[in-house]
Amino acid sequence: MKKSIMILSTALMLGGVADAQNINFEEYDLNNGMHVILHHDPSAPVVVTSVMYHVGSKDEEPTKTGFAHFFEHLLFEGTANIKRGEWFKIVASNGGKNNANTSDDRTYYYEIFPSNNLELALWMESERLLHPVINQIGVDTQRGVIKEEKASRYDNRAYGKIINEVKKNLFIKHPYQWSTIGSTEQLETATLEDFRAFNKKFYIPNNAVLVVAGDFEKENAKKWIEKYFGEIQKGEKVEKQIFIETPITETIRATYQDPNIQIPMVIASYRTPSMKTRDARVLNLISAYLSDGKSSKLYKKIVDDKKIALQIGAVGFSQEDYGMYIVYGLPMGTHTSEDLLAEIDEEIVKIQTDLISERDFEKLQNQFENQYIDINSSVEGIAENLAKYYLLYGDINLINTEIATYQSISREEIRAVAKKYLNPNQRLILDYIPAKDNTKK
């Protein structure tokens, strides 16, 4: 009886929090196909204006990689009405801040301004879309920026190419196989017309969603949105290619030599389904259970108790078409990579065989409930989630309902999904080791 009361109490608490966190929004389309989402929140005198384009590294050609990330930088160079080098000065002088980021699936730009500068933000984002200046000086400048970024984040950084090497080996047909930053060599040989063609194809209103979130007057926002974005012509519809990977049925073995490291790392990676699937949500729970933080099963067992690893961890990549679950470890002392894999596999087999404890299950549910609250606790987080759920998931209201999916997952389902995806013959084993001569290539 006590257990039943506890479970009921937890369910009521989670449901109550979810209701309290309900995100209201209004959505509509402009005549040119741009989708608009408005979320009014007067709790703080700020407003977020963001545009997410449905273009990422997966939309590039194999011989012209890195274009989406390149445009993340290039479209700050200036427009017909914003001189080169003035973008960030305008934002800062008006009390704002801005940024952008790129993934395999999308590119996201945003500004955060005091509420009285919404019109300015909308004009600037419309300028980026309507009047970008793509010239040789801008391209040459950003080539240098990208080259420096690649060197510092990947080439000269210890363990900097883990994700790139995993992707290269885990995906054979899908463009997820190349890195988001792409090839600097291909960027160097690309012509100005190549960049202009990429812009014309993907940076169009009908391939984007505009979000305004925060403290603003809706009627003014709608008037300014129509004024600045309504005149932009609709582009040719972007046809997305579909790439189907052959299921992995035998363990993939690969080795990479990193001249920046002294200690080897072993990596086990599994190809997982689209983030839009229920199974992907279950795998997120499994990932948290196994390897999220120092209280996780793998860390406590392998690092704290048995002391056979200096570090153990995992990262999950939830993406539009496929995902990746990557477990990594640094062997300690005389222990080997095979020792670590044996310990990891032992914990996975336990999940596949037995139900996780009710206490661990409740902990997971609370953890994901807290994450839901945290990510929607700021207007910036809400703006990005509204854009993401529309553009990548096709359901904006997931911002309110996705937590219910996590709450509906059972311990039995966790066991079944672990059996389905996390088997030795369905993964990549990557030995990430020091370069033999320990010199940079």
Automatic annotation (TrEMBL):
Ranges for domain Peptidase M16 C-terminal: 190-367
Signal peptide annotation: 1-20
Keyword RNA-binding listed: no
Protein name as it appears in the record: Pitrilysin family protein
Protein family: Belongs to the peptidase M16 family.
Domain Peptidase M16 N-terminal: 36-177
Lineage: Bacteria, Pseudomonadati, Bacteroidota, Flavobacteriia, Flavobacteriales
Pfam families recorded: Peptidase_M16, Peptidase_M16_C
Keyword Lipoprotein: no
Top-rank taxon, per record: Bacteria
Keywords assigned: Hydrolase, Metalloprotease, Protease, Signal, Zinc
